[in-house]
Amino acid sequence: MINILIVEDDKEISGLLCSVLSKNQYTCKSAYSGLQALETLKNNRFDMVLLDLMLPRISGEELLRNLRHSSNVPVIIISAKDEMAVKVDMLRMGADDYITKPFDNNEVLARVESNLRRSLGNTSSRLTAGCLEFDTAKNICTVSGQTISLTGTEIKILRLLLENPQKLFTKANLYMSVWEEPYDYDDNAVNTHISNLRRKLKSACPDQEFIETVWGIGYKLAGQT
Q: What's the predicted TM-score (pTM) here?
C-alpha cells in the first residue's frame, strides 16, 4: 500500500485531502504542525509528503530543508503562497512539485499519481500466487489475466497475505494490520471482507483456492505450509 503524509494545520483541508486520496486507495496520515510532522517522519515510512508552508512552530520551508538532509521521499508543496519566487525556491530546495491553494481535487490526485510513478517506477514489484498477480505500484490485481475490481480494504488484506505467505493471521492480527485500530472482538468486518475477496478471486479462477481458513484461528494464503 502507498502511504502519504499530509502536513497541513487546517484540519478541514487536511481532511479533504485525506478523503480524496483514501477514495483512490492511498493510505493517509495527518500531521498538523511541523514539529508533529518531524516526529511522525522519524517513526514511519512514507511514499510521499504533501506539505503546507505556513505551519506553526516549524515552517514548511524548514521542514523540507530538514527532510532533504535525510530522505528523497517525494514532496508536493500545497500552499496559498502563489509568488513565482517562492515556487522556484521550494523546487530548488528539493520539492518535487508545487500546487497553489485553492486547489482542484482532480489536479492534486493527478500530481500525486504522476510523482509516484516517477519515484516508484524503478521499485515496483509483482506479488504472485498461482494464477494471481498483484502489482504493488499500481495496486492492480489480475487473476488469469483478468483484472479484478477490489475495494481499498480488500487490496490491503490481499497485499498483506501475499507479502507474508507463510504467516497465519488471527482475526485480531488482520484487523489491527488492515484497519490500524484496536480489535473490538467483532468478527463481522473481517469475515465479510474475506468472504467478498475470496468470492471475487475465485470468480476468475474457480479451480484455485487463494485464502485458507484455519478454523478457530484465522486466515492465511492458501497453498503455503
A: 0.56
